[in-house]
């Protein structure tokens, strides 16, 4: 194969070139020397065995026919004489299962690349070379430092992230520092192409560094879908919880009226059942039951989060206010609180959703009674100078500090326990009132003074005042 003058003839050159690619895929190390121990060819496996050492020196067996590998380990080498005085050195794989292991690594979709203790390239599997097609054949890479591999990649215009493109030196310094870290490392990042990858660096006890890179774009997509599903579930759960609490809050006042007046009738508090006053109580029980029925009728929309629709009608404000004050009367009587209603003379009608107005009044009246310790709760209706109608509920309770007052109406904000030690409310009533008055293009105005009480005013816009004569 090698001529007497130590050079390869034309036929030999063609033969070596044809065999080199095949020899590079073999686990056995192969070196071909011309006379005078001049290296002609060394395949990729042999260069890996030598871990960057010069094959022209390190590939020659010792007097015992053994090849000393880095780290002091030696393997038996076979020397075959060639025509013209040259020789071939055949070095079996240091491990019996190396070729089988390499086959397994080449079958993986994960890229696998190995470096020695001095950060020099040893081998990369098929997936690695497929990911970096700009790299030269493996035989040329063996012995290249990790930094050198990074520079090859950047020079080819392949950028792992934005830093590699805009500040390559800082990128190289960072990656080399990460690679040389003593602790195993695992990172995830998004490439400039939008794909996610997980990179894991493993250091073996012998100093070998393995870098494994796996594409996890699909995993990330599934994780993002799960995260969004979790957020939706949490939101839906919060909505359901709010709905249940709101329902409980809204049912409390009319149920108190039903129970209070029915107990009076049952106990014949005013005498025998023929007493005319019981007719009034029966009417109030029916009225409270109708309000409960209205609330139940709105359950479907509330569960499905359908936006409420106004059903406007002309309302006799004075009559409605007097009726709702009577509904709350049993609660006030049990608490020792007086109830009163004050109305402007000749108050015009209000165009609004009667169910919603009734709901707002009951919330304000029940709050006034619940948080009053003395005196009276007064409900009033008046015509403002701008032509709008206001419904006002004022109590003589403990009052609130400005910081607490500013947050009232926020969903689930409960304020503080009062001076008598009674706990704060559910944080729902005023939030409901605020939402319902906003549907009428109005607003809820709150005023409070510590030790004197609180006033809540429902301001309806002038457009909702019914002019005389229709």
From TrEMBL:
Keywords: Coiled coil, Kinase, Phosphoprotein, Transferase, Two-component regulatory system. Residues 212-239 form a coiled coil. Pfam families: HATPase_c, HisKA, PAS_7. PANTHER family: SENSOR HISTIDINE KINASE RCSC, TWO-COMPONENT HISTIDINE KINASE. The keyword Flavoprotein does not apply. GO terms for molecular function: phosphorelay sensor kinase activity. This is histidine kinase. SUPFAM superfamilies: ATPase domain of HSP90 chaperone/DNA topoisomerase II/histidine kinase, Homodimeric domain of signal transducing histidine kinase. InterPro entries: HATPase_C_sf, HATPase_dom, His_kinase_dom, HisK_dim/P_dom, HisK_dim/P_sf, Sensor_HK_Regulatory, Sig_transdc_His_kin-like_C. The keyword Coiled coil applies. Its EC number is 2.7.13.3. It comes from the Bacteria. It catalyses: ATP + protein L-histidine = ADP + protein N-phospho-L-histidine.
């Amino acid at each position: 194969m090698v001529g007497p003058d130590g050079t390869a003839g034309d036929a030999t050159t063609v033969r070596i070139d044809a065999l080199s690619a095949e020899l590079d895929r073999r686990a056995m190390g192969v070196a071909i020397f011309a006379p005078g121990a001049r290296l002609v060819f060394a395949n990729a496996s042999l260069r890996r065995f030598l871990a960057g050492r010069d094959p022209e020196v390190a590939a020659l067996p010792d007097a015992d026919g053994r090849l000393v590998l880095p780290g002091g380990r030696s393997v038996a080498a076979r020397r075959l004489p060639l025509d013209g005085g040259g020789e071939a050195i055949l070095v079996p794989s240091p491990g019996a299962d190396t070729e089988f292991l390499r086959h397994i690594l080449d079958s993986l979709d994960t890229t696998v690349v190995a470096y020695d203790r001095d950060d020099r390239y040893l081998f990369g599997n098929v997936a690695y070379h497929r990911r970096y097609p700009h790299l030269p054949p493996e035989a040329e890479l063996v012995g290249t430092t990790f930094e050198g591999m990074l520079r090859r990649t950047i020079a080819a215009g392949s950028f792992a992230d934005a830093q590699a493109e805009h500040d390559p030196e800082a990128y190289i310094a960072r990656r080399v520092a990460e690679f040389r870290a003593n602790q195993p490392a695992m990172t995830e990042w998004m490439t400039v192409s939008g794909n996610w990858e997980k990179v894991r660096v493993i250091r073996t006890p012998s100093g070998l560094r393995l870098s494994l890179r796996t594409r996890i774009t699909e995993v990330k997509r599934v994780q993002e879908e799960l995260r969004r599903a979790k957020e939706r579930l949490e939101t839906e759960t919060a909505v359901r919880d709010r709905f249940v609490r709101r329902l409980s809050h809204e049912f409390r006042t009319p149920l108190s009226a039903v129970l209070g007046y029915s107990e009076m009738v049952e106990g014949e508090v005013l005498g025998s059942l023929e007493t005319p006053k019981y007719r009034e109580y029966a009417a109030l029980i029916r009225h409270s039951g109708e309000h409960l029925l209205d609330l139940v009728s709105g359950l479907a929309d509330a569960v499905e989060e359908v936006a409420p629709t106004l059903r406007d009608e002309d309302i006799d404000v004075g009559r409605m206010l007097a009726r709702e004050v009577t509904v709350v009367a049993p609660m006030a009587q049990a608490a020792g609180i007086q109830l009163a209603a004050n109305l402007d003379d000749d108050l015009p009608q209000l165009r609004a959703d009667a169910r919603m107005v009734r709901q707002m009044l009951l919330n304000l009246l029940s709050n006034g009674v619940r948080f009053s310790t003395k005196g009276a709760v007064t409900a009033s209706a008046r015509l403002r100078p701008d032509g709008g109608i206001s419904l006002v509920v004022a109590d003589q309770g403990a009052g609130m500090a400005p910081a607490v007052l500013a947050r009232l109406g926020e969903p689930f904000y409960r304020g503080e326990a009062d001076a008598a030690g009674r706990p704060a409310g559910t944080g729902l009533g005023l939030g409901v009132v605020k939402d319902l008055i906003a549907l009428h293009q109005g607003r809820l105005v709150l005023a409070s003074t510590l030790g004197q009480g609180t006033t809540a005013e429902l301001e309806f816009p002038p457009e909702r005042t019914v002019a005389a004569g229709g």
